[in-house]
Amino acid sequence: MNNHELFQRARQLMPGGVNSPVRAFKSVGGEPFFTARADGAYLWDVEGTRYIDYVGSWGPMIVGHNHPHVREAVERAVRDGLSYGTPCPAEVTMAETIVRLVPSVEMVRMVNSGTEATMSAIRLARGVTGRGKIVKFEGCYHGHGDSFLVKAGSGALTFGVPTSPGVPKAAADLTLTLPYNDLDAARILFAEHGADIAALIIEPVAGNMNCIPPAEGYLQGLRELCTKHGALLIFDEVMTGFRVALGGAQAHYGVTPDLTTFGKIIGGGMPVGAYGGRRELMEQVAPAGPVYQAGTLSGNPVAMAAGLAMLELVQAPGFHEALAARTRLLCDGLQAVADGEGIPFSTNRVGGMFGLFFAAGTVTSYVQATAADTALFNRFFHGMLKRGVYLAPSAFEAGFVSSAHSERDIADTLQAAREAMREAKGR
Ligand code: PMP
Questions:
Q1: Residues 8 and 147 in one domain
Q2: Which of 22, 110, 141, 270 to mutate to test the pocket of ligand 1 (most atoms within 8 A of CB)?
Q3: Is the pLDDT of residue 155 over 80?
Q4: What is the ipTM score, two decimals?
C-alpha cells in the first residue's frame, strides 16, 4: 500500500482524509505521507522512506520516538489492564510530579487532551470569578473549544477561517481578542472591560502562528493587569510545558499564572492533558467544589505510565540546556544557509521550540508572522520533504527538536536546506 492509495481511501472515509486538519497538507499543497513506524528522530512512511522529524507528533516526542524507557513503562502498565474507572496509584504520582515541577501548580486535574484542559480552565475561571468574558490573543490556539475559535492560530489560521461556522455568536461575543506582544492594547481593553473579564489565556511562547516569544516584560505586564482587575491569568503551556524549561514558560520567564493548562509531553504520546493552579481555585472543581468537569478515561493508567516515564527523562540534569543548544545549532545553521543564498529569512527559538520565517528581521507579532512569504515556505517545505526532512506542514506552526536529534541529523538537515532553498528561490 503506498501513500497515495491510502490517501485516496482515507478521503472517502474521513473529512479531508485525516483526523486533525493540519495533517492533510492543505496549506503546503500535495498529499501527506502515512507513517508506518517511528524511532528516535525519524519517521518511516509506508513506502519505507525515512524522514528526520521536526514535528515530533506536534510536541510530545521530546525524547524522540519510541524511547525504550517510555515504551517499557507502557508495556508494564498494559499487563495490568487498560482502564479501571477507579483511582489508580499512577495518578497520584503524576499529580505529585506536576506539583513539584511547575511553580504555580498546587493541585491538578488530569484530562484527555489540550482542548479539554483549556475548556475546563476557562469554565473554572468563570465559575470562581462569576464573570463571563475571556481574553485571548490573535493567532494563539487553545484547542477547538467554541470560546477559542475566535482569531485562532494553527489550522484555523492556516485555513483562513479564524471563526468557525458552528460557533454560536453568543459564545464568540464573550471572547475578546488582543494583538500578541502589545501591552498598551491590553491596558486599553482592561480599562474598558476589566470588571467583566474572568480570565486572560495566553500561550506564553506563541507556537500556533509560527513561533513568537513574548517581548521582554510582556508576561509580567499581563500578570499585573490581571491582578489589578481581578481576572485570572491562564498560561496555556500545552506546547511550552516541560519543554522551554523543566518548569515550563512560567519558570523560564519567572511569571506566576493563576491556572496552567498542559498537554503533549505530559502524556508521553498518549492522549493526555491537565489543568492546575492555586489550591483555593482548584478546590472549586467537582467533587471538591461546584464547577463540574469529569472524564471516563481521565487519569488512565497506561497514559499515566507513558507520561510519567517521559517526565522522568526530561528531569535528567542538563536535558533542557542540551535541547536548547541543539535547537540553536539548527536555527543558526538555517540562518547561515539562507544568508548564503541571499534569501530574507529569520528564526525564533526558545529552548527546544523554534520558528522559521521567510521574512527579513526578527518577527515579534502576528502581523509580521502572517506577512512572511508563505509561498516560498511551501516550496521549501516540499524541497525538504523530498530530501527526507519533515518540517511542520504549515508556515504557521512551531517546530520541535528532540533529544534524539544528533549533530549528524542537524548537519544533514542543513545540507538539505541548502539545496531546498536554492531550488525554492529559483522559481
Ligand atoms: N493549546 C495549545 C497551545 C496547543 O498548541 C494545542 C494543540 N496544538 C492545544 C491547546 C490543543 O491541544 P489538543 O490538540 O491536544 O486538543
A1: no
A2: 141
A3: no
A4: 0.99
